[in-house]
Specification:
- The complex is a heterodimer of chains A (261) and B (288).
- Chain A is an alpha/beta fold.
- Chain A has one domain: Glutaconate Coenzyme A-transferase.
- Helix content of chain A is 28%, strand content 21%.
- Chain A has helices spanning 7-18, 31-41, 70-74, 82-90, 132-138, 171-174, 212-217, 237-254; strands at 24-27, 48-51, 55-56, 78-79, 97-100, 104-105, 111-112, 115-117, 122-125, 141-145, 182-186, 190-194, 201-206, 224-231.
- In chain A, the strands form four sheets. An eight-stranded mixed beta sheet of chain A has the order 2-1-5-10-11-12-13-14, with helices on both faces. A two-stranded antiparallel sheet of chain A has the order 3-4. A two-stranded antiparallel sheet of chain A has the order 6-7.
- The radius of gyration of chain B is 19 Å and the shape is globular.
- Chain B folds into two domains: 3-99 and 157-287, Glutaconate Coenzyme A-transferase, CATH 3.40.1080; 104-154, no CATH class.
- In chain B, the strands form three sheets. In chain B, strands 1, 2, 3, 4, 7, 11, 12, 13, 14 and 15 form a ten-stranded mixed beta sheet that branches. A three-stranded antiparallel beta sheet of chain B has the order 8-10-9. In chain B, strands 5-6 form a two-stranded antiparallel sheet.
- Chain B is of the alpha/beta class and 288 residues long.
- Classes of the chains: A alpha/beta (261), B alpha/beta (288).
- Chains A and B meet through helix 3, helix 4, strand 9 and helix 5 of A and strand 6, helix 4, helix 5 and helix 8 of B.
Chain lengths: 261, 288
């Protein structure tokens, strides 16, 4: 039986559900922006979306292709300069939730978006830091949305761009980091949450149709499952409808099928 | 004091081989026309600074203008990699490119420090990341009052800042609005500033607190309508998202990039001719 939705759709819907109404959310471009805007259209109309280019309280009618699209500025409560967004609003401690994507992450939810291989002679040069190192530390908590594969879920990161729980346990607190860190990682297969003690990412809900075997095959380490692991609630018709309408509006506006990176 | 000039005069007068140059604009108002003129005039050995290198630095890097790059996010927004940037970093083509990497927060603070005539920026940054080990430019300092450890990074003080804005008046006072990025800070951190604008007006008619750069902090103002394309100018034209996607294919291959560069930039006299070539290119691509 086909479920009537894709694995990308359940990922985005599950991530959107994590954003509570009224939260002040610093939004990364791509998947986080899709999820945060979907949340705003569904259960979180009073969520405040902040983009690093300066818009505060952006309510874009279509998904932005770039972090500084004009639609973000036009629909925002206010637009401030880039230094101000990072100094007063993020570093100033005004952000509840940092919503991030990742090229790679490890079992402690540390993120790499910088290089594969040696930093000075990289095999693959990735885009780099952007706002993430400070979003991941200054936001009160962090949500991560990423497609799960052996390429993205790796045993050992070549570089930590943005801190998760570092080496686990209380390593994050010992490093003097203020924000609580990642509270959930949402993928196209499952939702992971940090173990309260070890802080290792643990599968807590599995999307309908995905199996433990499939999750293991798409993870570069010996992944743990919570003893209380349950099935993710499938997307409701209303959630799918809102997501598809948003993506259709976006495609019509930008002339693209999918905003994914 | 600002002088109205042609873009080729302004680049010839203010940007020299080996200079530290910041062409700023955060997705919005990226000074593409000025970047092309720098390529056309064959500038080399430049140290480039920019938060998001974007297509403009991909073009300058691919053209061999840059020896060094300071940046904080080097991708093609919404599309993927900057292939000319990657080719330079991964394979030294066309010339080796030394990089100094920062986070957005760091580089924004570094421009603020530069504008404020300070040698370094202090911020909460990089906690737990590998950047402190990877970069000699990211250090720390202890607060003299509380002892708290904070990140310290060198300020950015460009020889020349180049920005694009919506309007300037006869005297050369410049007005910009929308997403402002770090343009004001870049201009005030730099020794010289070149500004291209969409429109020359009698009066700016701006409300108090508008982002205005007075004529006396600007060296040259050039009238270049459309000069931020394929990025956008709020109130004038939209971002050319299709070109950003097309750039992925153009820039992926060295030969195709070189052909584009020759036809679009090197063999054109100015931005108006560039725009005509682009339109033709689009028509031909559409027919393929």
């Amino acid at each position: 039986m086909t479920p009537g939705y894709t694995s990308d759709e359940i990922m985005t819907v599950s991530a959107a559900r994590m954003l509570r109404n009224g939260a002040i959310c610093f939004v990364g471009i791509g998947l986080p922006s899709t999820a945060a805007n979907l949340a705003r259209l569904l259960h979180a109309p009073d969520a405040v979306l902040i983009y690093e280019s300066g818009p505060i309280g952006a309510k874009p009618s279509v998904l932005p292709l770039s972090i500084g699209d004009g639609n973000l500025a036009e629909t925002a409560d206010t637009v401030v300069s880039t230094p101000e967004i990072f100094r007063y609003w993020l570093q100033g401690g005004r952000v509840d939730v940092g919503f991030l994507g990742a090229a790679q992450l490890d079992r402690y939810a540390n993120i790499n978006t910088t290089v594969i291989g040696d930093y000075h002679r990289p095999k693959v040069r990735l885009p780099g830091a952007g706002g993430a190192p400070e979003i991941s530390t200054a936001a009160k908590e962090v949500l991560i949305i990423v497609k799960q594969s052996r390429r993205s879920f790796v045993k050992q990161l070549d570089f930590i761009t943005s801190a998760g729980f570092l080496t686990g346990g209380d390593a994050r607190e010992r490093a003097g980091i203020q924000g609580r860190g990642p509270v959930a990682v949402i993928t196209d297969l499952c939702i992971l949450r940090p173990d309260p003690e070890s802080r290792e990412l643990t599968v807590t809900t599995i999307h309908p149709g995905a199996s433990r075997e499939q999750i293991r095959l798409n993870t570069g380490w010996d992944i743990r499952f919570s003893p209380d692991c349950i099935e993710t609630a499938p997307p409701a018709a209303q959630e799918l409808e809102a997501l598809r309408a948003l993506q259709a509006r976006t495609a019509a506006a930008h002339g693209v099928v999918e905003i994914s990176s | 004091m600002a002088q109205w000039a042609s873009l080729s005069e302004a680049v010839a007068a203010h940007i020299h081989d080996g200079d530290l140059v910041a062409l700023e604009g955060f997705t919005h108002l990226i000074p593409f026309a000025a970047g092309h003129e720098i390529i056309r005039q064959g500038r080399c050995n430049l140290s480039l600074v920019r938060m998001t290198p974007d297509l403009i630095y991909d073009q300058l890097i691919g053209a061999g203008c840059a020896a060094r790059l300071t940046f904080s996010w080097g991708g093609n927004p919404g599309v993927g990699s900057l292939h000319r940037f990657r080719d330079a970093v991964e394979r030294d083509w066309p010339v080796p490119l030394a990089i100094e990497e920062r986070s957005h927060s760091d580089l924004a603070n570094a421009y603020v420090a530069g504008a404020a005539n300070l040698p370094f920026a202090v911020l909460r940054a990089y906690a737990g990341s590998s950047y402190e080990q990877a970069s000699p430019h990211i250090r720390s300092i202890h607060c003299p009052f509380t002892g708290e450890r904070l990140a310290a990074t060198p300020s950015v003080r460009p020889d020349v800042a180049v920005i694009h804005a919506q309007k300037a008046d006869r005297q050369g006072n410049v007005l910009l609005w929308g997403i402002l990025g770090v343009q004001k800070e870049a201009v005030l951190a730099a020794r010289h500033a070149v500004v291209t604008v969409e429109e020359r007006v009698e009066s700016l008619d701006a409300p108090p607190n508008a982002c205005i750069l007075p004529a006396w902090v600007v060296d040259a103002v050039c009238l270049v309508p459309g000069g931020a394309a394929p990025s956008y100018a709020h109130g004038y034209y939209d971002r050319d998202n299709a070109f950003y996607r097309r750039w992925d294919a153009i820039s992926r291959d060295r030969e195709r990039f070189c052909a584009w560069l020759k036809q679009s930039v090197l063999d054109t006299a100015n931005f108006t001719e560039y725009q005509r070539v682009q339109e033709e290119w689009c028509r031909k691509e559409a027919l393929r």
